[in-house]
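Predict structure. Chain length: 309.
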Amino acid sequence: MASSKLGQSDDNPLSGGDSSGLTNLESNPQHSPSSKLNGVFDQYKCQPALAPIFRKPATNAQGADQQQPPSSVKHKRKTTASGESLPLVKKAKRASSGYAPPSKYAHLVNKLTDSLAPNLICLFVGLNPGIRTATTGHAYNHPSNLFWRLLHKSKCTPRLCRAEEDGDMPKLYNLGLTNIVSRPTKDGAELSKAEMDAGVAELEAKIALQRPEAVAIVGKSIWESIWRVRHGSNMKKNQFKYGWQDDTERMGVVKTDDSPWPGAKLFVATTTSGLAAGMKPYEKEEIWKDLGDWVAKRRAERNDETAAT
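Prediction complete.
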């Protein structure tokens, strides 16, 4: 299968790989999403962030605030060679990540490009490239990221692939890679909701152009962004679910008379970032297994169809 790479792109995939037959969407305007799908996607407004939640202090049976007993753990002071005690020095807490403007990483050269081709079995959509991914040009390239391991354990790929093979995913296994935001950051917390929402229309256009059978969203926050743009409101807790989504949530739907398309079915997977500690590895594997079973089945069916012709 011929694969196409979108120039210095947003997210996911790759550099390297066989470039024969690649369609350069930037150098061929007639193939660009904007020229083929002009007018398909409407403008939208970003929603304000939710207000923070404050918890009340715990109370005892009489209603008074409970006081925590002082810690019984004694901190051992360091001593000099002569036995004199040194003063205790408190370690500075690591500051939590917050929004970082593009200027913070403007010095980085983002080498990551999309790994795309028409009629893929599944297109994986990540959030944005991390620093290591951007500088090496290979998707999910941090040692702590579980993407390639989950891809293999779920049977989306029959073997464990390396990040350096990201550009070969379309021709090897009919899988593609992209992101919803292209600029690199240390982590997802340095992105704003507004720029995530702004990436939805371009993502829909990519999907409409390449027409994969399915789209896998790699992380809850990406799906929440898509939901905000589509529904004009934040997703409620009882509206979120991992796995296959309702058929009405297909992505990349094309309604033009000359070439209509019902869109790609949608699967929401867990994030694979090593910084996300909300779920244990086996819990992530259970969610990814549903996607992997379907991908492996469709690949076998396609191979049978090819063999029969």
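Summary: Residues 1-35, 41-73 have pLDDT under 50 and may be disordered.
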